[in-house]
Amino acid sequence: MKTFVPARRCARWIAAPVCAALPLAAAAQERVSHASLETIVVTATRVPQSVQEAVADVTVIDREAIERSGAAGIVDVLRRSPGLEFVRNGGPGGTTSLFVRGGDTRFAPVFVDGVRVDSQSTGGASWNAIPLAQIDRIEIVRGPAAAVYGSDAISGVVQIFTRKGEGPFSPNVAVGLGEHHTGKLGAGISGASGGFDYAASITRETSRGFNANEAAGQNPDRDGHRSTSGSVKLGWTLNERHRIEASVLSNRMQAQYDGFFSADNDRSRLKLQTAALNWSAQWSDAYTTRVAVTEGRDRYETMPSPYLTDTRVRTYLWQNEWRLGTHLFTAALERRVDRLHNDSNTPPRSSRSQNAVALGYGWTDRTHTVQLNVRHDEDSEFGGETTGSAAYAYDFARHWRVSASAGTAFRAPTLFHRFSQYGQADLQPESSRNVELGLRYSADATSFGATLYRNRLTDLIDYVPGPGPCPNGTGAFPGCYDNVGRAEYLGATLTASHRVAGVNLNGSVDFQRPRDRDSGDLLPRRSRRHASLGADTVLGGWTVGTDVKLASERFEDAGNTVRLGGYGTVDLYASKRFAQDWTLLARIDNVGDKHYELARNYAIGGRMFYVELKWAPL
User: Fold this and answer.
1) Do the Cβ atoms of 590 and 607 come closer than 8 Å?
2) For residues 105 and 124, what is the distance between their CA atoms, to the nearest angstrom?
3) Which residues contact residue 322 at a Cβ distance below 8 angstroms, ignoring those fewer than 6 apart?
4) How does pLDDT run across 112-147, given as a tens digit for each residue?
5) What is the pTM of this model?
6) DSSP string, 197-214
C-alpha cells in the first residue's frame, strides 16, 4: 500500500470511496492463514470438506499465523478476521466479549476440540480464559449454524483445535518477555509411533499489567494477571478404519481488575477445562460414524467481593455420514446437559437438558453446491425448537462463485437468566432469521469476496431496570431480565488478498448496522465500520509484516448518549529462524501509542513490545 489513511480521518470514513477501496488491495476469506482452497474445514457442517466446497462464510487461522502474530490473547488474533470485533476491560486478563457480525458473545458458541465452552451465567465463552498458547488452529464460521449445533449459534461458531502429534518425537521450548513485566515460559512434546500419536504442552504466563480504569474513585493499582495452562491429546489408530482420540485442556488464571465503582483491589480466579473422548469408525467406503463424549467447565470467582459461578456442559454425540457418489447424507443424535452452581440462583444448583436430532444433505459437482440442514431440539424447560438452513453456490465462471443462504437459529435463556434473583422462570428462547448473499473470486495470486447479510432477532433477552416480577424487582436497585427486545444485524463484508513483488497484501472491511429494531439505536460497543489491513514479506531471512486496525465510533450505552471515539492502530512484527532449531519473534503493538477505549473508562495499555525465543528441532 502506498499510503496509510490516518486514524483521525478513517474513524470518520462515513462512506468515503477511498477507504472502502483500501481492503480491495488486501485479504481473502482465508487471509489470516493464507490457506489454499484445498484446506479442510470441519466446523461449517461437522463434516470434513474443503474450503472450496463450503458454502458458509469461513476463515481458517493456522498455527503459523498464530505464532507469527505474537499476540497476547486469542481475541487479538481473531480481531483481524472479517466480521469480528472485541471488547476488553483492560489487559488480557480482563473480561472480554467477542462480537461476530455484531451479535452478542452468547450468540457465537465456542468449541475446543469439539467440547462446547459456555457460561450459564453471562452466556457465551469466557474469552480471556482461553489460552492462546495451547491453540494449533482456529476455524470461524460467520452466520447462523443452529441447524447443525443447536442452541446459541445465532451469529456464528468458533472452533479451536489443540495440536495433534505426528512424525518423530519433537520437543519445543519457548520463552518470552514484554512490556508491563510480561513473561512467558512454555514447553511441549509431540510425535507419533506405530498407531499412537501424542502431543502435550504447558505454559506459564505472568504480567504486572497496567492501571486499567483511571476513573475517579478507582483503585490506581496495576491490574495484572498470571495463568498456567496445559493440554494433552492422545490418539490411537487401531487400523485404517477405526481411531480413538482423547484430549484435555486446562487453564487457571488469576487476574486483577477494577470494578465499576470500587477502590478495592478486586481480583478474579478463572478455571477453564475441557475433556473429550472420540471414536471414529469407517464401516464401509460409504458409511462412517463418530461417537463423542465431552465436558466443558467454566468457573469464575471474585474477591474481596464474594461471587462464584460454575458451569459444566456435558454432551453426547452420535454422528453418521453416508456418501453416495457426490451426495452426502448426515444424521446425528445429540444430548446436552447444562449445570450451574451460582449462589444468586434459587436453588443455587440448577440444570437442564436438550435432546436433539439433526439431518443434513450436501451435494456438489463442478459448478453447483447445495447444503441443507434441519435440527429439532427438545429442551427440558421449553419444549421443542426446530431450526433449518439452506445454502446454494454456483461457480458461474472460472475463478468466480456466487452463493445464497437462509437459516433460522435460537438460544435458550441461561440458567442464571431464569433462576437468579434477577431472573424469570418463564423467559422464552431468543430466535433469529438470517439471509445472506456472497460473491467470491479466487486465483493464484489474487482473491476477493463480498458478503451481504441480514439477521433479525426476536425475544431478545436484556436486563431491564425498574420494578419487575423477579425477586430483585423491588428494593434500592430494582431490575429483571426479560424478553423485551428485537434486534437487526445488517451488514456487508468485503475481503481481498493479492501477492505482488514478494509481498502478501491482505485485509477486510465491514460496514454494519447492529441496531435495536424498536428504538433504531445502535447496539452498545459495536462500530458501524471497522477494517483490518495487513502486509508481510521476507527480507534478509526475516519475515516482517504489519497489521492495521481501524474502527469508527461506538456507543457505550443502549440509548446512544455516551460516545466511544473511533481509532486506528498499527502493529509491527518480525521473525526469523536461525541456527536451524531456533526462532526469534519480535512484536510492537500500537506503534503510535494510540489512546482509545473499547469500554468506557477502561484503557487498552498503549504501545507494547514483546520478544520471544523458541527452540524446536526440525
Assistant:
1) yes
2) 5
3) 286, 287, 328, 329, 330
4) 999 999 999 989 999 999 999 999 999 999 999 999
5) 0.91
6) EEEEEEEEEEEEEE--B-
